Amino acid sequence: MKPTVLLTGATGYIASHTWLALQGAGFDVVGVDDFSNSSPEVLNRLRELSDREPVFERANVCDEAAMEGLFRRHPIAAVVHFAAFKAVGESTTRPLAYYANNIGGLLGVCGAMQRHGVKRFVFSSSATVYGQPERLPLREDAPLSATNPYGQTKLMGEQILRDLGAADSVATEGGARGAAWQTACLRYFNPVGAHASGRIGEDPRGVPNNLMPYVAQVAVGRLARLSVYGRDYPTPDGTGVRDYIHVVDLAEGHAAALRRLFEQAGSVTVNLGTGRSYSVLDVVAAYAKASGREIAYEVKPRRPGDIAACWADPTLARELLGWSSKLDLARMCEDSWRWQSMNPKGFDA
Ligand code: UFG
């Protein structure tokens, strides 16, 4: 029998791609989302792409009774937890909302898991937990810090999961409990791109905060020009440098992490990045080539809170999960453009 995985935040950008990757890896998926930052249309697209009826319930992960109901109705063997707010800037103006949703949701889901004896958990963490990097590439044992509430919620989330694992090992030594918690904290670098079909992709509400969706909307004519935030960084062309990773590679990383939790004891914390890095102007040039459109831009002052450069050492993920990224920047831009040009106004056009 296929193990059933609960996917929270299931209709979001990364989760919807992960839904397909998990099905491809032999898992049954139950999705939950409250559509606070996604569209129900995603379910139609998933039905079409997987040729299966998506098993889905609309609920908020902070709703304890709703989470309890999910565990009663479905034979859940593991959880992949995406549901969270993710905008750095917004987190500084709405800190309570970020703590309530990101920490409250995590506690709600883990509480229901604990009550039902389900202890395999994959957590969406972020490279933001490394704060201002002292050394590059970033290894998992680099110092951790947070400079905004969003980053704090990721740091705290990782800590909560370590505490859960530690509490279990104490209880296990005393012979009091059964299986121990097994968690995978996945520290994402910069997810971009879209499914090769062009049917699902990133559909931010309002003006995009992140680089590639902004560039995509310039290419398709929805936005006039990109603001390049800073050209005076200590990088080869002076613009910010990041480790962009194709969302389909990232989704496969979740399937690999889950497989590991089913096959071996213990918990893991790994980077999901490519180990390669590109500047803002590299991305602009690659996107112009993929789309055949000119990407107008102007240089603006640095964005507060931005770091100059950030990229992963992806070695540990390869060693522990047998996973590494496959798709290059050209593919990221081509797939993003296919999605953007086929769905110029996103899911709800
Ligand atoms: N940038 C621009 N113009 C824009 C948007 C971004 O020049 O309109 C630049 C930024 O200054 C940066 C690069 O493009 O140099 C990437 O910016 P993104 O906003 O796409 O991504 P960040 O690296 O700033 O943030 C991402 C995630 C965060 C996460 C962070 C660290 O969005 O959630 O990585 O892991 F916290």
Shape: globular
- Whole-number radius of gyration? 20 Å
Number of strands: 14
The residue ranges in which pLDDT falls below 50 over 5 or more consecutive positions are none
Associated small molecules: uridine-5'-diphosphate-4-deoxy-4-fluoro-alpha-D-galactose
The CATH class: Alpha Beta
What oligomeric state best describes the polypeptide chains here? single chain
The major beta sheet can be summarized as: 7 strands, parallel
Distance between the termini: 39 Å
- The CATH superfamily name is NAD(P)-binding Rossmann-like Domain
The average pLDDT value, as a whole number, equals 96
CATH topology (fold) name = Rossmann fold
Range of helix content: 40-55%
Structural class: alpha/beta
Structure description:
- Helix content is 41%, strand content 17%.
- It is an alpha/beta fold and 349 residues long.
- The protein has one domain: 3-Layer(aba) Sandwich (Rossmann fold), CATH 3.40.50.
- The chain has a seven-stranded parallel β-sheet with strand order 3-2-1-4-5-6-11, sandwiched between helices. It has a three-stranded mixed β-sheet with strand order 12-9-14. The protein has a two-stranded parallel sheet with strand order 7-10.
- Strand 5, helix 6 and strand 6 form a beta-alpha-beta unit.
- The longest helix has 25 residues.
- The chain is globular and about 55 Å long.
- The model has no long low-confidence stretch (mean pLDDT 96).
- It binds uridine-5'-diphosphate-4-deoxy-4-fluoro-alpha-D-galactose.
Descriptive tags:
single chain; 349 residues; alpha/beta; Rossmann fold; seven-stranded parallel beta sheet; 41% helix; binds uridine-5'-diphosphate-4-deoxy-4-fluoro-alpha-D-galactose
